[in-house]
């Protein structure tokens, strides 16, 4: 059975990379937000964005943080991690900088998306996992994520259930 997950990522630079992961067909996730729809949500301010995130997370078992160059420490990425963990969902980070974007370019490795979080004094990064595909070729990075992401999600859910 495919898990239903919430994808968290920095939209502008990583939407193409994120769509590659979404379209692998290994796990299902929240529907991508079209630019126009996102503009409508953001017009409502922070409260509207929080409601949208809550509605997208509803019924999900895990948050998959797709980590690009500038994902770490972004306001809404941090909020999504906090909300996922706080509501008992698994949290797993997958580095996607090795996937090519629409221009055929890879990007630089980004920071730790968990760096601002502690769980009872323990850094979240020592609890929740971050996976970094060990390849330079975008094709191999894709294949590695596709072959492993379902297991990473299952492991994240098990980890969360222990805390």
TrEMBL record:
Family matches, as InterPro entries: ThsB__TIR-like_domain (IPR015032), ThsB_TIR-like_sf (IPR036490)
Pfam family for this entry, one: ThsB_TIR
Protein name: TIR domain-containing protein
Domain Thoeris protein ThsB TIR-like per the UniProt entry, residue ranges: 6-100
């Amino acid at each position: 059975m495919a898990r239903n997950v919430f994808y968290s990522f920095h939209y502008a630079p990583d939407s193409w990379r994120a769509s590659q992961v979404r379209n692998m067909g290994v796990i299902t996730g929240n529907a991508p937000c079209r630019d126009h729809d996102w503009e409508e949500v953001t017009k409502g301010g922070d409260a509207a964005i929080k409601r949208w995130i809550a509605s997208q997370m509803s019924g999900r078992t895990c948050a998959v943080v797709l980590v690009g160059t500038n994902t770490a420490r972004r306001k809404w990425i941090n909020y999504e991690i906090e909300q996922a963990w706080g509501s008992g969902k698994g949290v797993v980070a997958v580095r996607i900088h090795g996937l090519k974007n629409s221009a055929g370019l890879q990007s630089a490795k980004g920071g730790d998306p968990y760096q601002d979080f502690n769980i009872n004094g323990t850094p979240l990064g020592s609890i929740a996992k971050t996976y970094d595909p060990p390849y330079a070729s975008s094709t191999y990075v894709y294949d590695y994520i596709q072959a492993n992401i379902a297991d990473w999600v299952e492991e994240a859910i098990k980890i969360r259930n222990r805390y």
